[in-house]
Write a structure and sequence with these properties.
The protein is built from four helices and seven strands. The chain has helices spanning 8-16, 23-37, 93-111, 163-176; strands at 44-53, 59-68, 77-85, 123-128, 131-138, 143-146, 157-158.
Length: 177
C-alpha cells in the first residue's frame, strides 16, 4: 500500500518541522496530505481557516476543513476538520485537550442541528507537530469521540513512523464520509 510519504514534498515538509515551529508548519504539511487524499478532481476542497458560528454567537476558525461538492451540489458536504498545534507540545495533555475542545465546538457548530436523515459520518483530527489523533462526531450526544477504523485500536499516530496506519485512517474517512 502506498501512502502520502510517496511524495517527496510531503516527506521534506515532515522533516522540516522542528521543535517549537509555529502551527503554520503543520498547516502546510496537512494541506498537502489532505490535497493528495481528497483531490479537487473528485470535487474536494480543503478550506484553510474556515469560519464556524456557535450556539452562543461566538465565532471560531478551524485550521483546515475538508468539503466535497457531490452531484453538482451548490452547497458542499462538510466532513473533516483538522485542528493543528505546534511541534514541541506533543507531550502536553492540555494542548491535546485544547485541540479536541476546538474540534468539538466547530463540529457541533457545523453539524449540531443536522436532520437525522442527513447524518453521514463526520470526523476530526487533532494534529500536534508530527503526531495526530482522530475523532468521530457523535450526532446524538453532539460531541467528538475517540475513533479508529475497525480492527484498529485508537491511538496517537506519528505521521512518519505510522504512515500505514494514518493512511488507513484517511482511506476509511474517504470511503465513509
Amino acid at each position: 500500500m502506498s501512502t502520502y510519504l510517496q511524495y517527496d514534498a510531503i516527506c521534506n515538509e515532515l522533516e522540516a518541522i522542528k521543535l517549537h515551529d509555529h502551527e503554520s508548519a503543520a498547516y502546510g504539511l496537512w494541506n498537502a496530505i489532505l490535497g493528495v487524499q481528497f483531490p479537487v478532481a473528485q470535487e474536494y476542497i480543503v478550506r484553510p481557516q474556515d469560519q464556524h458560528g456557535s450556539q452562543s454567537g461566538a465565532r471560531g476558525f478551524s485550521d483546515l476543513h475538508v468539503v466535497q461538492y457531490r452531484n453538482n451540489a451548490t452547497e458542499p458536504e462538510k466532513f473533516l476538520i483538522v485542528q493543528c498545534k505546534r511541534a514541541g507540545t506533543e507531550s502536553q495533555g492540555a494542548v491535546w485537550e485544547e485541540a479536541v475542545d476546538q474540534l468539538d465546538r466547530y463540529l457541533r457548530a457545523t453539524h449540531g442541528k443536522r436532520a437525522p436523515a442527513a447524518r453521514t459520518p463526520v470526523y476530526g483530527i487533532a494534529a500536534v507537530g508530527k503526531w495526530m489523533r482522530v475523532y468521530k462526531y457523535d450526532d446524538i450526544n453532539q460531541c467528538v469521540l475517540n475513533w479508529a477504523p475497525r480492527r484498529m485500536r485508537w491511538n496517537r499516530w506519528n505521521l512518519k513512523k505510522n504512515d500505514a496506519q494514518v493512511q488507513r485512517i484517511l482511506d476509511e474517512i474517504l470511503r465513509n464520509h
